[in-house]
Amino acid sequence: MKKHDVVIVGTGPAGLTAAIYLSRAGLAPLVIEGVQPGGQLTTTTEVDNFPGFPEGITGPELMENMRKQALRFGAVIQAGRVAAVDTSRRPFALTLESGEQLIAEAVIISTGASSKMLGIPGEKDYIGRGVSTCATCDGFFFRGKKIIVIGGGDTAMEEANFLTRFASEVRIVHRRAELKASKIMQDHARANSKIAWSLNRTPLEVIGGPLGVTGLRVRDEATGEEEVLEADGIFVAIGHTPNTGFLGGQLATDELGYLQVTPGASMTSVQGIFACGDVQDRIYRQAITSAGSGAMAALDAERFLTEQHMAVTV
After folding, report:
1. What does the pLDDT read at residue 36?
2. Is 138 noted as a catalytic residue in this protein?
3. For this structure, is 86 an active site residue?
4. Which of 11, 54, 237, 252 has its CA 20 to 30 A from that of 113?
């Protein structure tokens, strides 16, 4: 097995930015793409808030540019998915689902977090065409439109309030009569005159046509009756799941499963393993913050490897 200085697990904005920095430092990182090369941005049509693109850029195009930039400086990108990492000793052993094993002096985890989805008909069909999981990413595109936010927690309340800046109406749909959100978040939402409520309604199907989403079919849990709520956009706000299952609980996480890192840095609970992007960020989850944390992880990993080399040679 060939030993690598650094293996990066994941190819979203965080992982590819880390690859750019490390390859420019001459470390030729190996990047394992994972099941969704490029991360969640590959499902986003327009990205208008990433600096440097005044006319905007599509998510897939942005990720392809990052990929080409990493390759230009000597990063090696390999298809595959990491099934397990042995963090008990260094160099670390990584096992791919194919059975291939890799050895690395340092590992950067940038596997992101997956948006929880409803799993109803039409939902996947209209991702990027009216269905979204990120209000701050896509809210601008629904100026003057009717929007539905699905969820009853703090995230749903926060996104609904944010979306009222653009939408003509924001309707919160929740399958229970009671909300899970904190009282202060509920109070803020209920005080917003642009927010309407459809509680005790279970989403059944996303309705749409050639131009995108047109509505959401729901069932009234009190009467059993079904109806279609008109909407131009549907934001699913029921939470995220950090993609850390392959680590087998070997790294410290918070109560939601996000990897814990040293404040202001990227070091995890195991020396030599670093984390960046949404896998350790439960708050911002933006392409630009992910890219910034990827740069931090690369610099931290480079410093770690330099210190290890100096310790060996002294």
Report:
1. 77
2. yes
3. no
4. 54
